[in-house]
Amino acid sequence: MADELRVAVVGGGIGGLVLAIALAQRDVHVEVYEQAGALREIGAGVALSGNANRLLHRLGLEDALRAVCVEPSELVFRRWDDGEVIAAHPVARDGWYADTQGAPFYGVHRVELLRVLTEAVPEGVVRLSRRAVDVADGPDKVRVTFADGTSAGADVLVGADGVHSVVRRHVAGEEAAAVWSGTIGYRGLVSVEDLPSLPDPTPLQFWAGPGRHLLHYAISGGRVINYLAVIRQAEWTGETWSEPCAVDDAVSAFAAWHPAVTEMVGAVDEMTRWALHDHAPLRQWTAGRVALLGDAAHAMLPHQGQGANQTIEDAVLLADSLTGIDRDEIPAALRRYEDQRRPRTRRVQGFSRMAADCLHLPDGPEIEARDAMLKRVPDDIAWIHGYDVEEAAGRRVQ
Ligand SMILES: Cc1cc2nc3c(=O)[nH]c(=O)nc-3n(C[C@H](O)[C@H](O)[C@H](O)COP(=O)(O)OP(=O)(O)OC[C@H]3O[C@@H](n4cnc5c(N)ncnc54)[C@H](O)[C@@H]3O)c2cc1C
């Protein structure tokens, strides 16, 4: 069809790939331009919640996901030193989470998730080694220029190019300065066999203590534990947002914690520390025929595990918004997408900032109220996990 809508996507991460799958399934022409020479993800886990999984299932990915994902048995919060359980809530146990939130909760290795997504993208859609450097919106077409001097034109351009987005500069200028959270994270993958002190490897589990917390869950058939250990740090002087460090740095940050925690943090051969930043909410996500999604639009702290999940919500709603429209309807369709997504992602960004503060309280009188709150977590997060972005937008088409 000579006259079909053409969508160009900059960035082949989780957001760009889900958008490509959803557009292709809706018969909208899509091309994804990725700067790397191969699609790749870091060696770490990612937690996918019901609000994203209901959408991935609708895209026909349920069987492929179930083959590589692990459902945590429970959500458990423990005290940092003696391991006392503060609160425990069912997840896969008795089918509780899927029944109440409308879709399951998964832990998955990022490399395995990327494979599932890549296999669902039609051949020829992804163009590798194309680093976008500039965007120009003309009267009929938007044009993206790449570092190798080539360019591509499209009716719609989507910036799914992550937290350091080039497309964002075109849409929102320089307003999106990164905000340092005062926390750094150590991430690792550890074989369950190397964790004899861990009371139970099956839940998604938080260990909460003064100025620190550790979160872990199982991936890769339950044989591997993915963890993120977070500590407060006054400043970040590194030139990039992640840098190698000694394993002992992380272990000594958790000295005096429960042996399951120190054992887990120390059970890796190499360590990287990640400076955790987010962005203040943008004033606009779209300009003319150009739109942002995912971390390019709303980089958030990982403490609610929602960055990728919100990105998936963006991608599916954007695909719905671009389905069955004429060219002259593009700017209005993009604005509607933005209006539907901004308030929710802004609220999740704020919620993610608060989460670490509450886990990091010092032992003392405030703990009682905090612990009471942790006993209510499923009710408090239902607005995130039980949400159906397509239904909320009146766009449910399947
Ligand atoms: C420690 C940590 C733990 C996390 N855990 C979770 C979790 O459990 N659950 C969750 O939902 N989220 C989690 N997140 C957040 C999640 O990883 C991100 O929100 C998500 O990956 C964003 O996807 P994206 O597609 O927007 O961006 P990205 O995944 O960053 O992808 C962007 C892509 O664009 C490409 N690109 C960049 N610039 C250009 C350019 N100029 N031209 C062409 N291509 C370009 C990049 O190479 C990349 O492939 C975590 C984040 C951190 C830091």
Report on this model:
The structure is a single chain. The protein is an alpha/beta fold. The protein has a domain at 6-71 and 104-177 and 279-357 and 383-392: 3-Layer(bba) Sandwich (FAD/NAD(P)-binding domain). 34% of the residues lie in helices and 27% in strands. The protein is built from 14 helices and 19 strands. The chain has helices at 14-25, 50-58, 62-68, 96-101, 110-120, 167-172, 247-253, 259-266, 295-298, 307-321, 330-359, 366-374, 377-385, 389-392, and strands spanning 6-10, 29-33, 45-48, 74-79, 85-90, 106-109, 126-127, 132-137, 142-146, 151-154, 156-159, 178-191, 204-209, 212-219, 224-232, 242-245, 271-279, 286-287, 290-292. The strands form four sheets. The protein has an eight-stranded mixed beta sheet. Strands 7-2-1-11-19-18 form a six-stranded mixed beta sheet. The protein has a three-stranded antiparallel beta sheet with strand order 8-9-10, with no helix packed on it. Strand 14 and strand 15 form a beta hairpin. The two termini are 24 Å apart. The chain binds flavin-adenine dinucleotide. Flavin-adenine dinucleotide (FAD) is lined by residues 10-16, 33-36, 46-47, 131-132, 160-162, 166, 185, 187, 228, 274, 294-296, 302, 305-309, 311. Residues 10-16, 33-36, 46-47, 131-132, 160-162, 166, 185, 187, 228, 274, 294-296, 302, 305-309, 311 line the site of flavin-adenine dinucleotide.
